[in-house]
Design a protein that fits this description.
844 residues; mainly beta; single chain; 9 helices; nine-stranded mixed beta barrel
C-alpha cells in the first residue's frame, strides 16, 4: 500500500510562478502545466527510499493546471459612459381607462334581479401606473352596454392589490353562464361617469341584507339598499363555554376573523347588531334568514341566534338541538324538532305574523313541523323592539349568545311563502355572491390632456421639502458592531466599513444589526400617499454596482388584539397591558415586516457627482410604510464603495414634485421592536461604506480522465484567483476535510492524501488543478474503490478576523447548499466501480 501526503508535493507548489498564463488542456494534447518537483533534503524529506521517490515523481508528472469554460454571467455597465441625462421629462396623463370583466355565473333556472356580487380588483397597480387617483376613489362600473352605470360599494382595500368591491347587478338572466360588465378608472374625476354613480337600489321586500365575508373593520354595509347598516361589536361578557374550539379556515364565514377579534382574549364574543329604529314593524310580522354552523350543541345551555336588546323576541337553539321562537318569557315558546348536528352548515328561515297567529320554520328550504308550544303560545306583539343582535353576547346579566359561525343575514318585511323559502335557500349562497371572473385587456375609453413635467437635476434643490415625508437615514454598519456580548462595542467616531461577504447577493444599505431582523431597513414616516419618481444617490464609483432597487415595508404588529387597527381603539385595560408588557420582550416576536412594494432603479445620469435614478415602474408609497430599504448588487470589480442618499423626489395627486425630508436621529421603532440596546450604538455612519474582498470560490470534485485515471479536481468557480496560503489552508481543513482516503473493496487503504501544509501556485479564474489519485495500471488492486473524507480537529488559529483580507468558500461537487457532516470518523464521499470493459465510473 502506498501512503503519501500532499505535504511531499509542497516543494512543487513552492516553485517560482510561471511568467505566462497556463495553457488550455485539450483532449489530444493534455498539456502538463507543472514542472518536475524538487524534493526536499535532510529533515524536510518525506520519502526515505528510491521506490517511493519514483512513485511520487510519477504523480507530479501528471498533475495539470487545466483551463475550462466556466458559466459566465453577463455583466452590465451601471454608469453611463456619457454621464447620462441632465434632466428628465415626465408625461402624466389623465386618460379614462376601462376593462371588461367577465363574470362566470352558474346558469340559474331563475333570473336574479338587483343581486349583489363581490369582486376583488388590484387598484394598487393602477395607482402605481399613474392611471388611478391615489386619494379619491375614481372608479365606476357599467352594465354590458358600457353606458348604464351600476351601483357599487368599496368595502375595503382601496389602493391595495385586493380591493373588495360589491356591485348590484340589475339582472342575471336565467340559464346564462357569464355576464359582462365594465370597470372604468382614471386619475381625473372630470369624466361624466364619476358624477352619476347610483346608490344600491332599495329592495322593498327587505329591511336589511348583510354579508360578512373578510371584514376589515366593524362596519357592515346593507346590500338591500335600505340604508340600515349593521356593526360588529366585541362583547366583554365572559362565559367559560365560549372557548378555543373554533377551527374554520373558510373566508366566507361570520367570525372568520375571530382570531383577529379575540385571539388574545378567547372568552370574549362578537355579535352583529342592527339598529332597531327602522325595524319596528318586525314586532308584528316579518322573516329572518341566515346560515349557521353550531358548536357546543351538547352543552346544557340555551343558545341564541337572534334577540333584541329588550329581550322581547328571541330565536335560538335548546340543548336537545331543537330550535325555538320566543316572545317575552321563556315559558312562551314555539319549538321545532330539528336535530341539529355540530359543525354542519344549515340554512334557516323563520317567518312570523303575530296578528294571524302564524310562525313557520324552514331548514334548507323545507318546512319543519312544530313539536310543541303552539296551543299555549301567546301571540301578543311586543310594543317596541330594541336593536337586533345575532350571535355573541350582549348583556352582562344573562348568558344569551351563540357558539359557532353565522353568515348571509337577510331581514324581510313580510311573511314568506314556501316557494320563497326554497328560492332563498338556493340563491342566498356564496357561489352567487362571489362569482369567478376574468379581466380582459385594458383600453383607453376616452383621452384627455397630457401634462409634461420636467425635472432639472442640477436645480432639484429648489423643489420644496415636504415635512410629511420623513426619511431617517440610518446606514448599515458591520454585523459585529454593537455586539455587547463580545465586549466589542464601537466607541469611535469614524464611519465603519461593511465587508461584502457574498457578492452574488443584494447588499443592504440601511438598517442595524439586531436581535430579530437585521438590516430590515431604516425608519420612514409617510403621512400622505405619493408616487416615488426619482432617487438621487452620491456614489463614489457607480461601476461597483450592477443593479440597485428600493423597497418600502410595513411593520405588522400581530400582538395587537385588534390587528390591524390602531392602539387608540383598544379598551383601557388592553392599553394598560400593552404598556406593562410591550411586545417582543422575549424571543419570538409578535411582529414582522410586510413588503408593500419594491422597484428596480434605472440610472438616468450623473450630475455634480450625484447619480439620478428613476424607478422602472411608478412606485406608490402610502402611509402604511414604516421601513425603507435600498439594496444593490455588487459588480465583479473591487474597491471601496461609498453611498449617500441625497434626495427622494415624490409626485403628489396635484402633479406637484416634493422632496422628502432626510434626517438622522435615534431610530425609535427599531430600538423598541428589535431589542437593540441603545448603549451599544454610540455612532451612526454618515454614509454607507463597503469593501469587497477578493473571494476564493472553489469546488472539490472527482473526475475520471480519458486515460481511465481517478483524479482529485480543485476547481476555481469564482471570479478571483485562488491562492492556497495559510488562511485558505486553515479554512479548507476546518470546513471541508483534512484527509482523503482511497479504499479498496476490503476497506484496505490504497492511497492517503493529507491536506496539511498544502501550498500551491494560484489557480486562475476558469481553471482547475488536476491531481491523479489512481492510475490505470493500479486498478487491478480492487474491483470497487471508495473515497472517504475525514476532518480532524485542528488547533486554534493564530490570526483574527481583522487580519483576513479575502473571503474563502470551498464546497464539494459545486453544491453550496448541500450539507455534508464530515468528522474524525469520516464520510464515504464517492464509490468508484468498473464497467465490463474495465473503465472506471463514479457510482452516484
Amino acid at each position: 500500500m502506498l501512503v503519501f501526503t500532499l505535504m511531499t508535493v509542497m516543494s512543487w507548489f513552492l516553485l517560482p510562478r510561471p511568467t505566462t498564463d497556463p495553457q488550455k488542456d485539450t483532449k489530444s494534447k493534455g498539456k502538463i502545466i507543472v514542472e518536475k518537483p524538487i524534493f526536499e533534503d535532510d529533515e524536510g524529506s518525506r520519502y526515505r527510499n528510491e521506490q517511493d521517490r519514483q512513485k511520487v515523481e510519477r504523480i507530479f508528472a501528471n498533475i495539470k493546471l487545466v483551463a475550462y469554460a466556466p458559466q459566465e454571467t453577463p455583466t452590465k455597465t451601471h454608469a453611463p459612459s456619457d454621464r447620462g441625462q441632465k434632466s428628465d421629462q415626465l408625461t402624466v396623463t389623465d386618460h379614462l381607462y376601462r376593462r371588461k370583466i367577465v363574470l362566470k355565473t352558474t346558469g340559474n333556472p331563475t333570473s336574479l334581479r338587483d343581486f349583489p356580487i363581490c369582486i376583488d380588483l388590484d387598484t394598487q397597480q393602477w395607482i402605481e401606473e399613474a392611471k388611478l387617483s391615489m386619494i379619491s376613489e375614481n372608479l365606476y362600473f357599467t352594465d354590458q352596454d358600457g353606458i348604464t352605470p351600476l351601483p357599487f360599494h368599496i368595502a375595503h382595500g382601496y389602493g391595495k392589490k385586493a380591493t373588495r368591491i360589491w356591485l348590484s347587478i340589475p339582472e342575471l338572466p336565467a340559464w346564462t353562464t357569464q355576464k359582462e360588465i365594465y370597470c372604468y378608472y382614471s386619475r381625473s374625476s372630470d369624466y361624466p361617469g364619476f358624477k352619476q354613480i347610483p346608490a344600491f337600489p332599495p329592495q322593498e321586500n327587505y329591511y336589511g341584507w348583510y354579508v360578512l365575508d373578510e371584514l376589515k373593520d366593524k362596519h357592515v354595509a346593507d346590500l338591500s339598499g335600505n340604508i340600515n347598516p349593521a356593526e360588529l361589536v366585541l362583547s366583554t361578557y365572559e362565559y367559560p363555554w365560549w372557548s378555543n374550539y373554533f377551527y374554520e379556515d373558510k373566508s366566507y364565514i361570520l367570525f372568520n376573523d375571530y382570531k383577529k377579534w379575540w385571539k388574545h382574549d378567547s372568552s370574549k364574543g362578537v355579535y352583529l347588531t342592527v339598529p332597531g329604529k327602522n325595524l319596528q314593524a318586525l314586532s308584528q310580522k316579518g322573516a329572518v334568514e341566515f346560515w349557521f354552523k353550531p358548536y357546543y350543541i351538547t352543552e346544557s345551555i340555551t343558545q341564541h341566534f337572534m334577540t333584541d336588546t329588550g329581550q322581547h323576541i328571541m330565536i335560538g337553539m335548546l340543548p336537545d338541538r331543537s330550535i325555538f321562537l320566543q316572545l317575552g318569557s321563556r315559558q312562551n315558546r314555539i319549538i321545532w324538532d330539528t336535530f341539529i348536528h355540530q359543525g354542519t352548515w344549515y340554512h334557516l328561515q323563520l317567518s312570523w305574523d303575530f296578528a294571524k297567529k302564524q310562525a313557520k320554520l324552514y331548514l334548507y328550504g323545507k318546512e319543519v313541523p312544530i313539536r310543541s308550544g303552539l296551543s299555549s303560545f301567546s301571540w301578543n306583539s311586543p310594543k317596541a323592539l330594541g336593536d337586533l343582535h345575532f350571535g355573541g353576547y350582549y348583556v352582562e346579566s344573562s348568558s344569551y349568545g351563540f357558539s359557532g359561525f353565522m353568515e348571509g343575514f337577510r331581514l324581510y318585511k313580510a311573511f314568506l311563502s314556501p316557494e320563497q323559502a326554497n328560492q332563498n335557500h338556493k340563491y342566498n349562497h356564496f357561489r352567487f355572491y362571489f362569482p369567478t371572473h376574468t379581466m380582459e385587456k385594458e383600453e383607453i375609453a376616452q383621452s384627455n390632456k397630457e401634462d409634461q413635467l420636467s425635472l432639472d437635476f442640477a436645480t432639484s434643490n429648489t423643489i420644496p421639502v415636504n415635512e410629511k415625508i420623513l426619511i431617517n437615514t440610518i446606514y448599515a454598519t458591520p454585523i459585529h458592531y454593537g455586539d455587547s456580548f463580545s465586549g466589542s462595542v464601537y466607541t469611535g467616531k469614524e464611519d465603519l466599513v461593511n465587508i461584502i461577504r457574498n457578492p452574488d447577493e443584494y447588499q443592504q444599505v440601511f438598517g442595524m444589526s439586531s436581535h430579530f431582523y437585521s438590516y430590515v431597513g431604516t425608519e420612514v414616516s409617510i403621512q400622505e400617499s405619493n408616487l416615488l419618481e426619482y432617487v438621487s444617490l452620491k456614489i463614489n464609483d457607480p461601476k461597483l454596482i450592477t443593479d440597485i432597487k428600493i423597497s418600502f415595508s410595513w411593520l405588522v404588529d400581530y400582538s395587537h388584539p385588534y390587528y390591524p387597527y390602531r392602539y387608540s381603539s383598544l379598551p383601557w385595560m388592553d392599553k394598560a397591558l400593552s404598556w406593562l408588557f410591550p411586545p417582543a420582550n422575549a424571543c419570538g416576536p409578535y411582529y414582522s415586516y410586510k413588503r408593500l412594494g419594491e422597484a428596480r432603479l434605472k440610472l438616468l445620469g450623473i450630475v455634480n457627482g450625484v447619480c439620478w435614478y428613476k424607478p422602472e415602474k411608478p412606485f406608490y408609497v402610502n402611509p402604511l410604510a414604516t421601513i425603507m430599504q435600498l439594496e444593490y448588487l455588487p459588480s465583479k470589480q473591487k474597491g471601496a464603495l461609498h453611498i449617500k442618499m441625497e434626495d427622494l423626489i415624490f409626485l403628489d395627486s396635484a402633479k406637484q414634485f416634493h422632496r422628502a425630508k432626510l434626517h438622522q436621529s435615534k431610530p425609535e421603532l427599531l430600538f423598541e421592536r428589535e431589542r437593540i440596546n441603545e448603549k451599544d450604538y454610540q455612532h451612526f455612519n454618515s454614509e454607507y461604506i463597503a469593501q469587497q474582498y477578493p473571494m476564493e470560490k472553489g469546488s472539490v470534485e472527482l473526475m475520471i480522465s480519458e486515460q481511465n485515471e481517478l483524479a482529485l479536481v480543485l476547481r476555481n468557480t469564482g471570479t478571483d484567483q485562488i491562492v492556497f496560503d495559510y488562511f485558505s489552508s486553515y479554512y479548507f481543513q476546518e470546513n471541508v476535510f483534512t484527509h482523503l482516503l482511497v479504499l479498496g473493496q476490503e476497506n484496505q487503504i490504497i492511497k492517503k492524501v493529507l491536506l496539511r501544509d498544502f501550498r500551491t501556485h494560484p489557480i486562475p479564474v476558469g481553471h482547475y488543478l488536476f491531481v491523479p489519485l489512481l492510475f490505470e495500471d493500479e486498478l487491478n488492486r480492487s474491483d470497487v474503490f471508495r473515497v472517504k473524507l475525514l476532518r480532524e480537529e485542528r488547533a486554534n488559529h493564530w490570526f483574527n478576523e481583522n487580519q483576513q483580507t479575502k473571503i474563502i468558500s470551498w464546497v464539494l461537487d459545486n453544491k453550496p447548499f448541500e450539507f455534508r457532516s464530515i468528522n474524525e470518523e469520516g464520510m464515504i464521499w464517492k464509490e468508484i466501480r468498473k464497467d465490463p470493459q474495465g473503465r472506471l465510473y463514479i457510482n452516484e
